[in-house]
Amino acid sequence: MAPPTTVRALRIRDTALALIARPGGAATTVRDIAAAAEVSPALLIRHYGSMDGVRDAVNAHVTATVTAALSELVSDDLLDAGAQDSLAAALLDRLGADSPIPRYLLRMLVDGGDSGRALFRELYAAGRRTVDAIVRAGVLTDASDPRARAVVLTTHDLAVLILREPITEALGADPLSPTGATTWGTELADIYRGLQPPETSEETS
Predict the structure, then answer these.
(1) Which residues touch 141 (CB under 8 Å, ≥6 apart)?
(2) DSSP, residue by residue, the chain
(3) Using one digit for the tens of pLDDT, what is the confidence trace for 102-112?
(4) Nearest to 123 by CA among 175, 71, 160, 57
(5) Global pTM value
């Protein structure tokens, strides 16, 4: 069954996204959404059938929006000198600073389920394509395990994106702003440079 596409149905979906993404949003009800969208609960039910139907529609919308944004990012433009410092920063730039989607992503990924797993697969695939493009451009050396590298980098970028608010409070700067990204990146580089491989010595007899 195709999702509803009328103006009021889309308003209900977008309102549900904003409400569910808020702190405590898991307790959002049909009546809450209907009141905020200025429609009757009966109209919401007519379009989506139930609260589960609303959640399914929001999940599908968020996944499609993020996937489309990631597809736009996997290009040579991401490698330009003026490009964003991370996939997370570039994604946020396309979603908009006030978008509720990053907060909703947190709920999808933490709650798990088919939608959360499918979304992570999409994010990982985009991360893998981005890493491969960076390697081809000569910016990054080949990894012994490209899959593991893409998982690590994707997870790092997701953590910064969905934990942006508490990180900003602790760091004293938005990690996705130019100043915060510089601080964040410099510290990461120092940490990785400080991780020296253990020395090995041959046993003598």
Answers:
(1) 135
(2) -PPP-SHHHHHHHHHHHHHHHSTTGGG--HHHHHHHHTS-HHHHHHHHSSHHHHHHHHHHHHHHHHHHHHHHHSSGGGGSTTS-SSHHHHHHHHH-TT-SHHHHHHHHHHH-HHHHHHHHHHHHHHHHHHHHHHHHTTSSPPPSSHHHHHHHHHHHHHHHHHTHHHHHHHHSS-TTSHHHHHHHHHHHHHHHHH-PPPP------
(3) 889 888 888 76
(4) 71
(5) 0.72
